[in-house]
Design brief:
SAM-dependent_MTases_sf, globular, methyltransferase, about 40% helix, SAM_dep_MeTrfase_SAV2177_type, transferase
Length: about 260
């Protein structure tokens, strides 16, 4: 999101505004002000961000209960409880979670959070350079174990332009995973109209750095991995809780999980 074009103050930061939207406490006053303003101008954008967080929590919990105890969370953002490691290591205390983000400040806050926590690590890396990311020792340790790894790409691919070839990026990440591994993706939808209650100009400016894609385009990011039922669907409808299943809130976000055979 191009928060710089939406903010009400010069100090607002995109990652911290997103953190504010999903209930985090990492933001400054400028971030909270920008978030509140965007929430009034584009309430469905706020709902979608919250839906993304809820989807990721459900997906990680579902995978952990399938016996997956190794996770690589790429584009992890500022840590907000329940975090990936809290869910995954809560199910399997001997497991491992490696967070990855391009933002050094995210890295600093994440390292503070996981300091002394066995099985949790952070690496600085850019999803647009997947080979470099995969070469990080902490990531290699999971891949070389030969055991299943869940690679989580939560709301990060829609920041990757077509010129960077997101299909190549996702193929590189998938091919590195051992048999039995899983691939998790959530992505802003480009083929679902936004409701009239959202300010059109605000959405346009918010999406200047985003690349919404259709359900078909998102499905291609899973390659030949076998999609877990119900496939690529609205994120709010992927293994929903009773509350989520009954919600009528807009959520122009796709989510899916697939397994490498």
């Amino acid at each position: 999101m191009t928060i710089e074009n939406l903010e009400k103050g010069p100090d607002a930061h995109a990652a911290r505004v997103y953190d504010y939207f999903i209930g985090g406490e990492n933001g400054l006053a400028a971030d909270r002000a920008a978030g509140a303003w965007i929430g009034m101008q584009a309430p469905d954008l706020l709902t979608t961000m919250q839906s993304n967080r809820a989807f990721l929590s459900r997906a990680v919990r579902w995978l952990a209960r399938q016996g997956v105890d190794q996770f690589i969370d790429i584009g992890s953002g500022f840590p907000v409880s329940p975090n990936t490691h809290e869910i995954a290591l809560g199910e399997s205390p001997a497991g491992s979670v490696v967070y990855c983000d391009v933002d050094p400040e995210v890295g600093r806050r994440t390292r503070e959070l996981i300091a002394g926590r066995q099985g949790a690590d952070f690496v600085l890396g850019d999803i647009q350079n997947p080979d470099e990311l995969l070469a990080r020792p902490a990531v290699q340790a999971l891949i070389r174990s030969g055991r299943p790894v869940a690679c989580v790409l939560g709301a990060v691919l829609h920041f990757v332009p077509e010129s960077a070839d997101p299909e190549r990026i996702t193929a590189t990440l998938r091919e590195a995973l051992p048999p039995g591994s899983y691939f998790v993706v959530s992505h802003i939808a480009g083929d679902i109209p936004w409701g009239d209650r959202n300010n059109e100009e605000t959405l346009k400016r918010a999406f200047e750095d985003m690349h919404p894609r259709s359900r078909e385009q998102v499905a291609r990011f899973f390659g030949d991995f076998e999609l877990v039922e119900p496939g690529v669907v609205l994120a709010s409808q992927w293994h929903p809780t009773e509350e989520a299943a009954g919600s009528r809130s807009a959520s122009a976000l796709y989510g899916g999980v697939a397994r490498r055979n």
